[in-house]
Every structure is written in structure tokens, then in C-alpha cells.
From TrEMBL:
Residue span, Pyruvate phosphate dikinase AMP/ATP-binding domain: 20-56, 64-288, 304-356
Broad EC category: transferase
UniProt similarity note: Belongs to the PEP-utilizing enzyme family.
The protein, known as: Pyruvate, phosphate dikinase
GO MF assignments: pyruvate, phosphate dikinase activity
PEP-utilising enzyme C-terminal domain span: 532-874
Pfam family of the protein (one): PEP-utilizers
Cofactor(s) for this UniProt protein: Mg(2+)
Catalytic reaction list: pyruvate + phosphate + ATP = phosphoenolpyruvate + AMP + diphosphate + H(+)
Domain PEP-utilising enzyme mobile: 422-501
InterPro entries: ATP_grasp_subdomain_1, PEP-util_enz_mobile_dom, PEP_util_C, PEP_util_CS, Phosphohistidine_dom_sf, PPDK_AMP/ATP-bd, Pyruvate_phosphate_dikinase, Pyrv/PenolPyrv_kinase-like_dom
The EC number(s) this enzyme carries: 2.7.9.1
UniProt cross-references to SUPFAM superfamilies, sorted A to Z: Glutathione synthetase ATP-binding domain-like, Phosphoenolpyruvate/pyruvate domain, Phosphohistidine domain
Length: 876
């Protein structure tokens, strides 16, 4: 396989399918050249193979010869030679990975200039000033980008020169001064590197190519890949291309153009251009640009040609494209195109519009496929509408949406301030179930510790509340925090964007969260596509959340965590009384009180989800979570002394203390020890169902036993559930009882349950994969402990390709799921299968769950639209 390909190389497949080899920019340049026949300055691409070979074993053998051959071809095509003293060829060296990547090496323009060829350029253009300006720019660009020198080294002599010649603007500096500047720039290079500035264009070229290769492993590029989940082993391609000059004269210029508006999605061209300018001048914002429409008056023929090209690009790529173009002395050149990035709003509008395009159109499946989860996130949540003036830090983007409010440092203070009508941001090191009231009252949540599955992150996502977590630079002490040199006191206004992780001082303007009408259209199409193949449910624990989830399109509840009902302020004392009970009678009395409370909760949920399945998980967490912490009580005992009741709580907390509670007495194990507890929960649930029936509703109940390990254990638990169901239903007239629809199943969240799923299915009507615990136990990673430092080190070093708590680990945890699906269905072909872990809202995981044969996924209510879209994309 060769390492280099000319833009007009005859590939066997369309270049666009060769992005892995040619990189995005190279593939598009080849496509424009050889498939579309557009005016592209000739050049060639050095493949990602060459980059990978270089990164592994140094400069690849044979690459020099190939490059020399390509350069000769290019020289022939252009009728000019690199380094020629009379009429030199100049080239640009452009990096271009498969995915566009900030942090990679910048483009080097005007390569090939040296002490001789600069004279040729001056003669050819009859413009000495232009030639020497290009030369001194090239030396400084090469010095900065390729040789890694500090840009200030070049700025200082330039300022000095301007002063000496008594001019203000760069453009006024004369040719002679520029010639001298080129000399002093060369001295800067020689002094700083110990080597003279390379005069041989072949050396210049090799240096630039190596710098592009090397930039693949630059710190910024690596960090970007981790965040965007781009594999580290792709490598980048390098494009070497003949220069065209938009800065030649007033009949020249350069610009960027979109085939439609990337912000709104509106049809019609959009962009900016500059007369007599080169390269990045347009994006750099140095000069005021003109709108693309001004091209119509200034260069009517070029405008017409460009609009023709835009139409062809859209038809060819069947999508919106962005372009970079240059006009040299009245001739149009295309320098780049690609399917353009767009906002969420624009993505929705374009996808729908393009199904009705004249001449060419996309199908509804394609339209659904073009909208990404991020796009929906953008229109569902507000975001920063401007760059923050005072960015404080960047933490983990834990829950999308932006918020502005006054900083408060405890849940109580936040709740109190919110009560007074203030917009509040809760700032704490981390959160726990005891902080929930303060979290609810806040516009947004900022924590300095914890990862993407920390309590704060999970709860905030569930409510659709903005959160930035793990902002390690934030040092909290009492009622203030510092970041770097800035201190933020209680009541100071801060802003955060949970979609980007940014935290800023003061008020940042926000965009609105109002989905455009195309949002509804796309989701309707998505639902039609996935109908009967993959359902989407929500995780919800109370009536309002369930109703909210249904609004978002949830087709049932995949996980109702009953412990959340126990944690409410008015319930906790009853739960504690149950735990502290000395006699069976006391325990029963407490359970009876809980039953009444839970029944009301269940009625509300079943009503909100009428005629849709509701999976209720029996109590799962270890009991100590309902008790005060032993440390707190021990401290109080040593200082103020304890009341009688507190003495008992302390004794209970000590006796329920476990070294490893997540692997301790929880889930069904708790049921084995306190069987009355599960019976009470089922009684409450079934009585609620009967009440709904009598009210004319259609309750569909699925009772779920958590943390099953063996068939025997599940058989025992199923017995309690079935007995209690029979007990409640037994009193009913047959006509009513027959209408009750009850399934009994289990979570599959331990590796053993997954491996022995065939046996376990004998006792289960359904499985719901609890992939959070399953991941934790399969990896042996404590979810709350590995998220911060360890996980980022693993991702940066490529030890893990993905955070397995965000995206299902297909080869390991996913294999267990697949095996359990097979085992379970072998025993019970009609076994209903779903997933209720955080993965249920992750598009890539959803795709996997569909492929292994699950019937539904379940996620937090705000994630439901994204899951509906992802489910449709999985099915397509
Ligand atoms: P990026 O990926 O950062 O956009 P590019 O490789 O596209 O970098 O180069 C940046 C700019 O340099 C282009 O927009 C274009 O204006 C200019 N440029 C690159 N190659 C050439 C060329 N062969 N002739 C003229 N200008 C060029
Ligand atoms: Mg570009
Ligand atoms: Mg679990």
C-alpha cells in the first residue's frame, strides 16, 4: 500500500469512504477533485498509515521517495518548482484526521519560500512587499508551529520595526523593512534552535509533516479525544497542496460559506468573506468581514459559480456542507468542504426540510439518523448564549442545561434562600440523599468532587437539572469557595453550563429551551420506526415524575425505586421505628404505617401510567442508609450526650454497620431477613392496583426483586410476592380479579445471575438488567470511587476505550447480558427483557441492547426523547 495519494488518484472506492485512510479533509479534497470535478488546487495526501507507522517506529522507509515523486508531479501540474528562484511553487501543509480535531497542528502556509524563491515570488507578482511579507510570515509561522518557538520572539522585532519606520499598521510596513525582518526572524530561529532556518524546501516539508504527525499525541489533542470518545489509534493524515493567493490584489479574496444557515437551519447560503486576504484572516476576526451575499455585487460571476457549486455539493452529499474558498485574481478555488456542523435547532430543521427537497431528498429514516443526542439536548435545555466573561473553571458536564443563581453552600441554606424567591446554585463538595431538598430548590448544582455517576450527577440528570460535578479547582471552605485567585462568597452570582462543564462568575446570558416544531416531527417518525421493536420506559419514583415521563413519551416505568418513598421527611421516622422494633407487634405496627403511605404513592404512579407497565422494585439499599451515621451520633454522645431514642439509633446503626454495604445485606437478602417488609410493599402495591381498577383504570404491575443471585432465593421471594398478591386479590370478585395484570420478575445485576439466567428464568416472568451494579461487580470497580482520577487516567492511556459506567462494555458486561438473554429465553421463550441502568439512556448502549434482543430500555424522564431517537436509530 502506498503512503501517499494525489487528490486526483483513482481510488477503487469513492474517497469519502476512505476517511480512515485519507482523513476527513483529504477525503473531501479528493472527492471534490476526482468525483465532482470542482476547481481545487492540486495536491496530495499522506495517509494515516504513514502517521501510525511514524508514531510506532519513526520516519517510515520509502516515504521520502514517495513524497519526492508526488512533489515532482505537483510541480509538473503547476508548471512551477518548489524553491525556484524565478517562479516558485508554494504549498500549504494541512493536518486532517478522520474527525476534525482542535488541538492538532495548525496549517503552515507559503511553504517553499527561502532566500532565493522569495525573489522569484517578488518578480512574478511584481510585488516585492507581498513577497517579503509572505516570507517573514512563513518563517514565524514555521518557527511557531513546526519548531515550537514562542510567538513573542517574532512579535517583538516586528513591533520594533514598526516603531523604527514610524508606522502604525502592519500594512504600512515597507518592503525593505520586511526584508530586514525576514533576516532577523531567521536569526531568532538560529539562536533559539541552534540550527539555521531550513532553506531547502524538502527539509521544510519534512519538518512540517513530522510536526503534524507529532501533534496527534499533543496534550490538547489527547484531551479532546478523551472527551469526544475518539480512539487514540487512528492517527492523522497530512495534506500538501499548491497555494493560491487570496491576498494577491483587490480582485482576490477568501471566505467561508455554508450551503444553509448552520445556526437556524434556514435555506440559502450563509457565510463571510474578505477581499484581498489570506488564510485564517476570515476566522481570526482581525478585519471586518463581509457577508457572503455581498459577493453577488462585488464578484457577480464568482458568486454565480459558487452558488452552482453549493447546489452540487448539497445534492452530492445530500446534506448541508461548509466550505472554504479563495479567489485569486478573479478565479475561484475550493479549499475545503465537509458536511457541516450545526446547532440542535438547525439539525432538526434541516433533517425535516431535506425530506421535502426538490431534485433530491432524504428518507424519513435518514432524517431521523441525522439528529444526534446532543442536538436534542441542546433544544431541550438552555445553554450559555455567549462566551462567559469570567470563566472560573471547567468541571465534568454531568447534567445538561445552564443556570444562573446565587451561590449557597449547604442544602438548608439553598432551600431557605430559594424560599425567599432567590435563584440559587448549590455549591458543595458532594451530595447525599440528605441534600435532596436543597438540590430541588436550586437552579443548578456544582460539586467539587465526584464523577459522572455520583449522587449529584445521577439525581440532577433524573430531574433535568443542570449540574457540573468534580470541579476539582473549586476549593470550598465554609460559606465561600476559591478558584485560582478568585473568591466567591455566599450570595455571589455564578453561572454554570452542565452541557459543557463551564462555571463562570456573574450572570451569563442563556439561550431558551424551547424545542422547535421539527422536534415533534422527528420524534414522531422515530416512534413509527421503532414501533414494536424497542420500547422506551422511564425511571420514576412518584406520580409527578411519572406524569412528566409520560409527557416525554415514556411507554411505562422500567424502574420505580421504592426506597425513595422511604427517605421522605415524614417517612424516615416510621422506617426507623420499623428497624428499631423490639417485638413483632411493634414491627408490624410500623410496617402498617408504611403500607398506608406507600399505597398512596403507588396509586399516583399507576394513575399517571395508566394502561402502561410499571415495574416496582422492592426495597434494595442496605438498611443503614435509613439510619443516622454512627460517627455523628458517637460525636454527639461524647459531647452533648444522647437521648434515649438516639441511644437506640446508635445501637441499631452499629449493629447494621457493614464493611462493604454495597455487597452486603441489601436487595433480596434484606427480604430474607425481614420478609414482612416485602410483603408489606406488595400489599400496598396490589391494594393501589385494586383501587385503580375500581376507579376504572387499567393498572399493569410488574413486581421486581433486586439483587438476585440464585434460583432458590428468587423462588423464595417469588413465593412471598405471589402469596401476598393472592391474599389481596382473593377477596375480589372473579370479574375484577381477572382484569389484574401482574408479572413477577427480577433484576439481573450480579454476574452469577447472568451466568445462571437459564435457571433463574424458571422463577421470573421478566428480567431487567441492572447494568450499573452489573458493571460494578463485573469490573470490580466501585462506581463511586473510580470515577475521578483513576477513570481519567485509564481513558487517557487508552486502557479503557470508554467509561463503562456511561457506555456499556460490550465485550465484558455486555457479553453477560447477551448470555443471560439467551439463557433466559431458552427456559422461557416469552421472557420479557429490559434494562434500567444509566446505560438505558446512552445511545451507543441502546444500540447494543437492541442487537442482543431486549424489549425495552428505561432511563430518566428527561432522557426519554433521546432514548426514543436512539432506539429508532438502532432499529434502522
Ligand atoms: P483548519 O482545519 O484549521 O481549517 P486548514 O487546513 O483548512 O485548517 O487551513 C486553514 C486555512 O488556510 C484555510 O481556510 C485556507 O484559507 C488556508 N489555506 C490552506 N491551504 C491553502 C492553499 N493551498 N492555498 C491558499 N490558502 C490555503
Ligand atoms: Mg479549514
Ligand atoms: Mg442495583
Amino acid at each position: 500500500m502506498p503512503y501517499t495519494y494525489a487528490f486526483d488518484h483513482k481510488h477503487r472506492r469513492p474517497p469519502m469512504e476512505l476517511k480512515d485512510l485519507l482523513g476527513g479533509k483529504g477525503a473531501n479534497l479528493a472527492e471534490m477533485t476526482s468525483v465532482l470535478g470542482l476547481p481545487v488546487p492540486p495536491g496530495f495526501t499522506i495517509s494515516t498509515d504513514a502517521c501510525r507507522a511514524y508514531l510506532e517506529g519513526g520516519w517510515p522507509e520509502g516515504l521520502d521517495a514517495e513524497i519526492a515523486r508526488q512533489v515532482r508531479k505537483l510541480e509538473k501540474a503547476m508548471g512551477k518548482r518548489l524553491g525556484d528562484a524565478a517562479d516558485p511553487l508554494l504549498v500549504s501543509v494541512r493536518s486532517g484526521a478522520k474527525f476534525s480535531m482542535p488541538g492538532m497542528m495548525d496549517t503552515v502556509l507559503n511553504l517553499g519560500l527561502n532566500d532565493e524563491s522569495v525573489k522569484g515570488l517578488a518578480d512574478q507578482t511584481s510585488d516585492e512587499r507581498f513577497a517579503y511579507d509572505s516570507y517573514r510570515r512563513f518563517i514565524s509561522m514555521y518557527g511557531r508551529i513546526v519548531l515550537g518557538l514562542d510567538g513573542k520572539l517574532f512579535d517583538a522585532p516586528f513591533e520594533e520595526a514598526k516603531q523604527r519606520s514610524g508606522v502604525e499598521s502592519d500594512a504600512e510596513v515597507g518592503a525593505d523593512v520586511l526584508r530586514e525582518l525576514a533576516e532577523s526572524y531567521k536569526r531568532v530561529v538560529a539562536d533559539s534552535t541552534g540550527q539555521p532556518f531550513p532553506q531547502d524546501p524538502a527539509d521544510q516539508l519534512r519538518g512540517a509533516i513530522e510536526a503534524v504527525f507529532g501533534s496527534w499525541n499533543g496534550a490538547r489533542a489527547v484531551a479532546y479525544r478523551v472527551r469526544e470518545r475518539i480512539p487514540h489509534d487512528l492517527g492523522t493524515a497530512v495534506n500538501v497542496q499548491a497555494m493560491v493567493f487570496g491576498n494577491r490584489d483587490d480582485n482576490s479574496g477568501t471566505g467561508v460559506g455554508f450551503t444553509r444557515d448552520p445556526a437556524s437551519g434556514a435555506q440559502g447560503e450563509y457565510g463571510d468573506f474578505l477581499v484581498n486576504a489570506q488564510g485564517e484572516d476570515v476566522v481570526a476576526g482581525i478585519r471586518n468581514t463581509l457577508p457572503l451575499s455581498a459577493l453577488r455585487d462585488r464578484f457577480p460571476a464568482i458568486f454565480k459559480e459558487l452558488m452552482g457549486i453549493f447546489a452540487r455539493l448539497e445534492e452530492h452529499y445530500r446534506d448541508m456542507c461548509d466550505t472554504e474558498f479563495t479567489i485569486e485574481q478573479g478565479k475561484l478555488w475550493m479549499l475545503q468542504t465537509r458536511v457541516g456542523k450545526r446547532t440542535g435547532r438547525a439539525a432538526l430543521r434541516m433533517a425535516v426540510d431535506m425530506t421535502k427537497q426538490r431534485g433530491w431528498k432524504i428518507t424519513r429514516e435518514e432524517a431521523v439518523g441525522r439528529v444526534a443526542a446532543d442536538h436534542l439536548d441542546q433544544v431541550l435545555h438552555p445553554q450559555f448564549a455567549e462566551k462567559p466573561a469570567q470563566l472560573l473553571t471547567k468541571g465534568l458536564a454531568a447534567s445538561p442545561g445552564a443556570a444562573v443563581g446565587k451561590a449557597y453552600f449547604s442544602a438548608d441554606d439553598a432551600a431557605a434562600a430559594a424560599e425567599q424567591g432567590e435563584a440559587v446554585i448549590l455549591v458543595t463538595s458532594e451530595t447525599s440523599p440528605e441534600d435532596v431538598h436543597g438540590m430541588i430548590a436550586s437552579q443548578g448544582i456544582l460539586t467539587s468532587r465526584g464523577g459522572l455517576v455520583s449522587h449529584a450527577a445521577v439525581v440532577a440528570r433524573g430531574w433535568g437539572k443542570p449540574a457540573v460535578v468534580g470541579a476539582e479547582a473549586v476549593r470550598i471552605s465554609g460559606r465561600s469557595f476559591t478558584v485560582g485567585g478568585t473568591t466567591v462568597h455566599e450570595g455571589d452570582v455564578i453561572s454554570l453550563d452542565g452541557g459543557s462543564g463551564e462555571v463562570a462568575l456573574g450572570e451569563v446570558r442563556l439561550t431558551l429551551a424551547d424545542p422547535p416544531e421539527e422536534f415533534t416531527t422527528i420524534l414522531k417518525w422515530a416512534d413509527q420506526i421503532r414501533k414494536g421493536r424497542l420500547a422506551v420506559r422511564a425511571n420514576a419514583d412518584n406520580g409527578p415524575d411519572a406524569a412528566n415521563a409520560r409527557q416525554f413519551g415514556a411507554e411505562g416505568i422500567g424502574l420505580c425505586r421504592t426506597e425513595h418513598m422511604f427517605l421522605a421527611d415524614d417517612r424516615l421516622p416510621i422506617v426507623r421505628r420499623m428497624i428499631l422494633a423490639d417485638t413483632p407487634a411493634e414491627e408490624e405496627a410500623a410496617l402498617e404505617e408504611l403500607r398506608v403511605a406507600q399505597k398512596a404513592d403507588f396509586v399516583a404512579i399507576l394513575e399517571a401510567m395508566d394502561n402502561l407497565p410499571v415495574t416496582v422494585r422492592l426495597l434494595d439499599p442496605p438498611l443503614h442508609e435509613f439510619l443516622p451515621s454512627t460517627e455523628e451520633l458517637e460525636l454527639k454522645k461524647a459531647t452533648k450526650g444522647l437521648t434515649k431514642q438516639e441511644e437506640r439509633l446508635l445501637a441499631a446503626a452499629q449493629s447494621w454497620h457493614e464493611f462493604n454495604p454495597m455487597l452486603g445485606t441489601r436487595g433480596v437478602r434484606l427480604g430474607v431477613i425481614k420478609p414482612g417488609l416485602y410483603a408489606m410493599q406488595v400489599r400496598a402495591l396490589m391494594q393501589a392496583a385494586v383501587e385503580r381498577l375500581e376507579a376504572g383504570g387499567k393498572p399493569r404491575v410488574e413486581v421486581m426483586i433486586p439483587l438476585t443471585v440464585t434460583r432458590q432465593e428468587l423462588g423464595l421471594a417469588r413465593g412471598w410476592v405471589a402469596d401476598t398478591v393472592a391474599e389481596v386479590v382473593g377477596d375480589l370478585p372473579k370479574r375484577v380479579a381477572n382484569k389484574l395484570d401482574v408479572l413477577i420478575g427480577t433484576m439481573v445485576e450480579t454476574p452469577r445471575a447472568a451466568v445462571r439466567a437459564d435457571e433463574i428464568a424458571e422463577e421470573a416472568d421478566f428480567f431487567s438488567f441492572g447494568t450499573n451494579d452489573l458493571t460494578q461487580m463485573t469490573f470490580g470497580f466501585s462506581r463511586d470511587d473510580v470515577e475521578g482520577r483513576m477513570m481519567s487516567a485509564y481513558l487517557e492511556q487508552g486502557l479503557l476505550k470508554r467509561n463503562p459506567f456511561e457506555t456499556i462494555d460490550q465485550g465484558g458486561v455486555g457479553q453477560l447480558v447477551a448470555d443471560a438473554v439467551e439463557g433466559g429465553r431458552a427456559t422461557r421463550p416469552g421472557l420479557k427483557l429490559g434494562v434500567c441502568g444509566e446505560h438505558g439512556g446512552d445511545p451507543e448502549s441502546i444500540d447494543f441492547f437492541y442487537r442482543v434482543g431486549l424489549d425495552y430500555v428505561s432511563c430518566s424522564p428527561y432522557r426519554v426523547p433521546i432514548a426514543r431517537l436512539a432506539a429508532a436509530q438502532a432499529v434502522i
